C-alpha cells in the first residue's frame, strides 16, 4: 500500500524525503492559512513568525500535492514527518481524504489545533505581513518560507490570492527596511 503525504506549503518545495510520485490533490473542508505562530522553524518564542496550516472551514478546499514515499521508506518518512511537523504539538496528525485525477486517496496530513496557544486565525493580512517580514527561526527567515511557497504554488498552477498579496507586501516591507 502506498504511503501518501499531503503537501500544501513547505512540503511542496522541501519534502525532506525521496518522493516516488507526485499528484495534484484537493482537500475539502480546509483552507491554507497563515494561522500558526512559529516559535521554532520560522520564528522564536520572543518573536514568533507565522507558518501555513490547514485550518478547518466549511465549504473551503485546499489544493496541493499528494506525495508518495518509496515503500521501503514508509516508516522512516513517517518518523521524519512527526519530528518535523509535531515539534510544538500545534499540528494534529490526521488521515485526510484527497481528491486526485486518478481517484480518491488517503494521505497523512497535519492540521492546526484550533485550541493550541499557537493558533492565530484572527490576524488580518497586514498584521501577517508585518510579522513575516521580520521573523527568523531555526530554519531561516519567515520571508523565505512565504516566497518559496508562493513561487512553488504558482509553478504548479495553484492560485492563492492571499499568499500572492502577502508575498508582494512583504517584498515592499523588506525593501523599505533596506532603504
Automatic annotation (TrEMBL):
<dbReference type="GO" id="GO:0061928">
    <property type="term" value="F:glutathione specific gamma-glutamylcyclotransferase activity"/>
</dbReference>
<dbReference type="InterPro" id="IPR006840">
    <property type="entry name" value="ChaC"/>
</dbReference>
<keyword id="KW-0456">Lyase</keyword>
<dbReference type="Pfam" id="PF04752">
    <property type="entry name" value="ChaC"/>
</dbReference>
<dbReference type="InterPro" id="IPR013024">
    <property type="entry name" value="GGCT-like"/>
</dbReference>
<dbReference type="InterPro" id="IPR036568">
    <property type="entry name" value="GGCT-like_sf"/>
</dbReference>
<dbReference type="GO" id="GO:0006751">
    <property type="term" value="P:glutathione catabolic process"/>
</dbReference>
<dbReference type="GO" id="GO:0005737">
    <property type="term" value="C:cytoplasm"/>
</dbReference>
<protein>
    <recommendedName>
        <fullName>glutathione-specific gamma-glutamylcyclotransferase</fullName>
        <ecNumber>4.3.2.7</ecNumber>
    </recommendedName>
</protein>
Amino acid at each position: 500500500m502506498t504511503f501518501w503525504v499531503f503537501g500544501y506549503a513547505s512540503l511542496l518545495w522541501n519534502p525532506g524525503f525521496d518522493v516516488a510520485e507526485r499528484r495534484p490533490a484537493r482537500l475539502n473542508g480546509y483552507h491554507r492559512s497563515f494561522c500558526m505562530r512559529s516559535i521554532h522553524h520560522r520564528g522564536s518564542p520572543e518573536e514568533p513568525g507565522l507558518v501555513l496550516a490547514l485550518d478547518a472551514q466549511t465549504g473551503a478546499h485546499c489544493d496541493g500535492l499528494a506525495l508518495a514515499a518509496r515503500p521501503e521508506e514508509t516508516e522512516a518518512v513517517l518518523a521524519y514527518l512527526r519530528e518535523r511537523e509535531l515539534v510544538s504539538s500545534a499540528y494534529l496528525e490526521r488521515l485526510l481524504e484527497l481528491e486526485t485525477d486518478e481517484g480518491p486517496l488517503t494521505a497523512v496530513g497535519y492540521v492546526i489545533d484550533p485550541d493550541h496557544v499557537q493558533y492565530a486565525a484572527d490576524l488580518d493580512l497586514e498584521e501577517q505581513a508585518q510579522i513575516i517580514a521580520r521573523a527568523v527561526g531555526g530554519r531561516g527567515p519567515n520571508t523565505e518560507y512565504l516566497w518559496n511557497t508562493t513561487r512553488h504554488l504558482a509553478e504548479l498552477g495553484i492560485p492563492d490570492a492571499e499568499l500572492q498579496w502577502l508575498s508582494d507586501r512583504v517584498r515592499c516591507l523588506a525593501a523599505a527596511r533596506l532603504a
